[in-house]
Amino acid sequence: MGYVAALLIIGLCTFLVAQPFFSNKRHWTTDEIKDDLDEYSKENIFATINELEMEYNMGKLPKEDFEKLKKHYENLAAQKMREESMSNTEIVEKQSKEILNESIVIDKELEEEIEREIRLMRQKRKGK
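Structure tokens predicted for SHOCT domain-containing protein:
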């Protein structure tokens, strides 16, 4: 009985390991794969550049690889800074539009208040 159980377990393990090799279904879409570099911050990029420089200075990284990787991460940092500056200008523009709209509303309210006061003064004069 023990031999039969052992053979069944070994057979099941062998099947599970070998099954992907015999499967014709190999559908990989790169859009569905999420990479660690999809979300990165400016600080992470600068930390990576710093680590690259340290590894190069310690002799762990060849000069060609160092220059290639450093240029790549510098480009990423520049792109990230451009995105942040664009988002900052959009925020400033949105805030200035909101302030302008608020000032227009306040101006209209002030004009209405002034007109009410003038009407009240005219009514008081006519009443005297």
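The chain has one domain: 38-127.
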